[in-house]
Specification:
two-stranded antiparallel sheet; 9 helices; disordered C terminus; elongated; single chain; 217 residues; 2% strand; mainly alpha
Length: 217
């Protein structure tokens, strides 16, 4: 890759990071190229259509980048498929959203675009992921495609990301993770899965990309 291509790649990544923070604070409708440019202290022409053809394309780039990051986080989890693995992943995703504007932006965008009927990128699909681990947590009783697991996965995801989405316009904090741990304890216990409280006391978020996925202040 020559210097010009490297510079273009760096610029693209900088735009994605800046845009993600704006999407997290203002949502899809409240974000514009002008607002992203202002956040970067650059003219609108510096991030315009020669880099991203539309705001929609920019939003998808934010989601795809975070989905790839979630896949990277999952690849570092050493526990076998099941409840503990899922709790580590959920805790890591929450901690990542607290410290990473791309994560916060991707969560809000995914919520808003799916609510508007958009088909979002599927680099990492939370629905399939949660169903698979819930099925494994019960000893593999019933396939991950079972409607019962689909309903349970939807409940977990709707509540988990609902809490995180509701906080992205302000700022996710350590309190958010505490709220979610209480929520997961109630949800998974209600689903009849044993040992939830003990697992939640011991799970720790994993590190990805050389940065600790741990809560900020």
């Amino acid at each position: 890759m020559n210097q010009r291509q490297q510079a273009k790649t760096r610029t693209r990544e900088q735009i994605i990071e800046a845009a993600a923070a704006v999407f997290a604070s203002h949502g899809y409708a409240g974000t514009s190229f002008a607002r992203v440019a202002a956040a970067m202290d650059r003219p609108k022409s510096a991030i315009g259509y020669h880099v991203f053809s539309s705001k929609h394309e920019l939003a998808f780039a934010v989601i795809e980048r975070q989905q790839a990051r979630w896949a990277a986080i999952d690849s570092l989890i050493r526990q076998p498929e099941g409840l503990e693995h899922l709790l580590v992943m959920l805790t890591s995703a929450c901690s990542d959203a607290i410290r990473c504007p791309v994560a916060a932006g991707a969560i809000r965008l995914s919520h808003e675009l799916r609510g508007a009927g958009e088909v979002i990128p599927r680099v990492f699909t939370w629905d399939d992921y949660v169903r698979r681990h819930l099925s494994a947590s019960s000893g593999g009783v019933g396939p991950a495609t079972d409607p019962e697991w689909a309903r349970a996965a939807d409940l977990v995801l709707t509540s988990t990301f609902g809490v995180m989405w509701a906080r992205t316009s302000a700022r996710l904090t350590r309190d958010t993770e505490g709220q979610l741990r209480d929520l997961w304890a109630a949800l998974f216990t209600g689903l009849g899965l044993p040992g939830v409280h003990g697992l939640l006391e011991q799970v720790e978020p994993v590190r990805v990309g050389g940065h600790p996925a741990t809560p900020g202040d």
